[in-house]
Amino acid sequence: MDKFEQLDRKYFHTFDALRFLSFFLVFLQHVPVPDFSVFSFFTKSGKIGVSFFFVLSGFLITYILLHEKSSVRRISLKNFFVRRILRIWPLFYAVLLFAFLTPYFLDILQLSFPKDGYNPNWFISALFLENYMMMTTNGFPNVSPLRVMWSLCVEEHFYVLWGIIIAILPIKKVPQLIFCAILFANLSRYIYHHMGVEWLDLPTNLDYFAYGAIPAYILLFKPELLIRVQKMHNLTKYILALTAIMLVFIIPNLNSYWLNALAPTVLGITFSALILFTLPEKNGIRISNNLYVSKLGIYTYSLYLTHTVVINFFLKFEFSTSEFNFIITAVVSLITTILVSILSYHCFEKHFLKLKKYFY
């Protein structure tokens, strides 16, 4: 057991609840709802849910890397990458295999198969490049699980880039790195917009991860700022939480390019501050670990990868064409996805996660 393994790394329980709530935003966007429905206002925030995942990932990965570097003066990239592989790859490739076989099973069962979208290139998908296929075709793959995998591709690219940079960069240069990442992402989005390209890769989403890195750096190297945050009045924290909730639902309903262009910055700063406010042991917006929303947070990865498959399965039943259909489909799909994810975690993912202890 090395020195780093003996050191206490924090587990941020409040994040489990935030993970599940972010997934729920993605889930709602993928449940079909009539445009005229009152629910339509609340079902457009899936991309923002993904954006929060990026901010949260930026925090956790930066915290892990900087914690190791400040503790033992170096980062074992091999161990870092193996831990990421054990977390991401097993279920990713299992779902990918399911996606490959889905059309054949549906043909055998004489069930319809959606033809809208492009035919996947399985080699591209396996290399975590689905996001670039979506960008070049300006469309979605016609196999439902692959439609959400673009964000996992972005995450994988971030792990590689950020891990290497943090390993070779002096800790004192991290604030400059964060600033450059934010600037680079904004410039990338501006260029992509004028090229007519979707913002589905790491360059156009890098600032979300960078905003997440800010509270990680503060937690490790600026404890005096964290003390000041802890002393802030709870009313300030409640206002921030309420603001975050309002932005999550208002921004997707805006049609102005310039407002949407500013959205990543506004959301990034808001989410970064929200994470910062939840870090102190005593804070006004801490979410109890005993709530179901927190307990479900540990299954978020499987929830994210499997929910579109479950939704599409239940859509075949066509309960009705009214808003009632949306409610039934949403409830039944959510419950089923949770059950599938619990089984996936305990019967499959957990066995790979146990191996992570050998790579610290």
UniProtKB/TrEMBL annotation:
The keyword Transmembrane helix applies. Residues 14-345 form the Acyltransferase domain. Signal peptide: none annotated. GO terms for biological process: polysaccharide biosynthetic process. GO terms for cellular component: membrane. InterPro entries: Acyl_transf_3_dom (IPR002656), Acyltransferase_3 (IPR050879). The chain crosses the membrane at residues 20-42, 48-66, 86-106, 148-169, 208-226, 238-255, 261-279, 291-314, 326-348. Keywords: Membrane, Transmembrane, Transmembrane helix. It holds the Pfam family Acyl_transf_3. GO terms for molecular function: acyltransferase activity, transferring groups other than amino-acyl groups. PANTHER family: ACETYLTRANSFERASE, ACYL_TRANSF_3 DOMAIN-CONTAINING PROTEIN. This is Acyltransferase 3 domain-containing protein. It comes from Flavobacterium aurantiibacter.
